[in-house]
Amino acid sequence: RQNLVSIKDMNKDEILLILMQAQKFSQGESWRAGEQTFVANLFFEASTRTKTSFEVAERKLGLEVIPFEAGSSSVLKGETLYDTVRTLESIGVNAVVIRHKEDQYYKQLVNKVNIPVINAGDGCGQHPTQCLLDLFTIQQEFNRFEGLKVGIVGDIRHSRVARSNAESLRKLGADVRFSGPPEWFADDYLTAGDYMELDRLVEEVDVLMLLRIQHERHDGGAEMTKEDYHQMYGLTVEREQRMKPGSIIMHPAPVNRDVEIADGLVECSRSRIFKQMENGVFVRMAVLKKVLEGSNSNELVNQKWQY
Ligand code: CP
Fold it and tell me: 129-140, pLDDT tens digit by residue?
């Protein structure tokens, strides 16, 4: 069974194959599942980009999108996630896309249900399709990962994007560094010895990846003001002016303007924030194709990227 629940499960070749397919979709390639195929998007946490771009991707592939609203489903009557997915499978749904607040919710599904599961974000765990669209955006820009210097800044501890991106970028040969408030640093290997002061980091990186402050995952303790955060850990206009020529700004969004990034920089010439969203559709088409056709991950990927 093909699933995509964590970027950790993908080797370098599998990642590059997805990026290559996303590139083909961005250039107009089409693919159809062959017979009537039903997909349901189960979002138990808020989403604009991921949910909408999965739905656009599904419709572009000719898939039948089955509406599912957690707030009017039998989850309200206490039905478990496992029983919900087994029910959809029994009714004829061929694949599910799930976002859930519980870390590793997918462990109750993988190898237990008989349809592919695509993780659209689990708690503070993983966000593999965001990671793949970020990689696709970086590859479009630089045509390489090896030796690229990437800075990830902000609420590292609560960010599934930071975790997924750091792991995959390192797998692909990039040099990943972190910055942000020390109290939001992850205690694990991700940040061991890789901290840099923000004022130095902005001058050295090729890619500056800013993270949203995840207030909804904080324990409610006292937090600094938005203005203080922006001055200490945000991309101010002054810091942007010290970035290297050719370097880019990324953010998974939603963006807190004037907190992680100055309002006027969200759409500046270095920003790829809306390009990331555009690329999300092509990457999600590639992921859906892969899980639905059970594609062979050992295919050769030594083709040169052309833009
Ligand atoms: N980047 C991202 O996952 O956005 P949404 O929460 O809007 O889906």
Answer: 999 999 999 999
77 labeled part of a ligand binding site? yes
CATH label of the domain that carries residue 239: 3.40.50.1370
Q: What's the token pair of residue 203?
A: 């001058």
Q: Cα separation of 263 and 72, whole Å? A: 37
CA of 197 to the centre of ligand 1 (A): 27
Q: Is 181 annotated as belonging to a binding site?
A: no
3-state secondary structure 1-32: CCCECCHHHCCHHHHHHHHHHHHHHHCCCCCC
Confidence of residue 217 (pLDDT cuts 50, 70, 90): low
Is 130 among the annotated ligand-binding positions? yes
Q: How much distance in Å is there from the Cα of 280 to the middle of ligand 1?
A: 10
Total domains in the fold of the chain:
2
Domain that holds residue 142: 128-274
Supply the ipTM of this predicted assembly: 0.99
Nearest atom, ligand 1, residue 45 CA: 6
Residues 97 and 149 in one domain: no
Interval 19-44: pLDDT, tens: 999 999 999 999 999 899 999 999 99
pTM: 0.93
In a domain, 254, yes or no: yes
Asked if residues 60 and 285 have their Cβ atoms less than 8 Å apart, the reply is: yes
* 3-state SS assignment for residue 292: helix
- Residue 282 — left, alpha, or beta (φ > 0 → left; ψ -120 to 50 → alpha)? alpha
Nearest CA to ligand 1 atom 3: 50
Q: For 63-79, what is the mean pLDDT?
A: 95
